[in-house]
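Handoff note, outgoing to incoming analyst
You'll be picking up this chain. Sequence as last confirmed:
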Amino acid sequence: MLTVLDAILRMFVDVRRTISFFVSCGAVAVNADARPHPAQQTSYSGSMFVRSLSIQRIDAVGAAQPCPIRWIDNFAMRNFTNDAVFDDTLPVGDGWLEAGHRVPLDRLRPAMEDWFRRKGYLKPGERLEIVERNPPAKP
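Most recent structure output, in case you need it:
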């Protein structure tokens, strides 16, 4: 019985730490009337990660089309890639992926191409082009 209570107590402490973290960084307000956290008052670009990457599918004729976000999202889920180096990625739209500095571009393209081929997204003769760019303007 004591081990069950210990487990419940540890779980409660973990949840409390997580909530405290999000409140302290300003991601969550304690109540609806709460003033915004100072971090929320500063200028913020809206990007989660530092780099914005354009992900284009180049067909056999050489024409480029943005990869659908569902393809990019499918790759970005660690359950599928099982590679921690790609954890710092966030699909943000068709043809756009945000990434941290830990993500090596020289490994990203071959890994994405391999995954897309296994899923049947890329046909023979097609390839990916990944370029670091400024994100598209938000409406």
